[in-house]
Amino acid sequence: MEHRRKRLTREESRRLTRDRLLDSAAGVFARKGFYGASVEEIAEEAGYSRGAVYSNFAGKEEMFLALWVRQKEHDDALVLEGLNFPDKAQEQFDHSLEEDRTWSLLSFEFLLHAAREPDIRQKLAEHVRAADATFSDILKQWLAERNHDPALPVEHLALLLSAVSTGLGLQGLVDPKALPKGIYALALERLLSDANGQSPYGKRP
Prior knowledge:
It is built from nine helices and no strands. It is mainly α.
């Protein structure tokens, strides 16, 4: 018996179109860079008209912001996963330096663009604040489950963990050999230590 494919609702169809456009944008941005990418090429690669882009996004800046949010959620999930095992966190960080180089370059390119455009800067700042708040809440729960009281406020820790990852990532783009072995895992443990220098992981071999 032939099964009919379930018809998508309007919202499901819109979400599918949006996801396809974002996937296309990610590929075009990776090849052309933020400045070199065009709305027309993104739409063509996704198999849609230029109008389909503008019915879902205000322009390529908004598309990149949506990609940034998606990538941020992915990166934070990896950081939280790595919190349980510092060595695993280091392994993930090393892997990201090799595999996510293109995205890192794009991110820094867009940050420079946003810094020069007040409207885009404001929108990006709102996304960053929301992501940091979510990350802080999850980190707070993680610390509470281990009955660990860090030396720094959780909100500051979340910001510093993100800054360390970004800063080391930037250094890795320029000169990966300059990064000492295990530096990310060490920074993770030191930042999470309590006032007495005790790590939430206890003594490690």
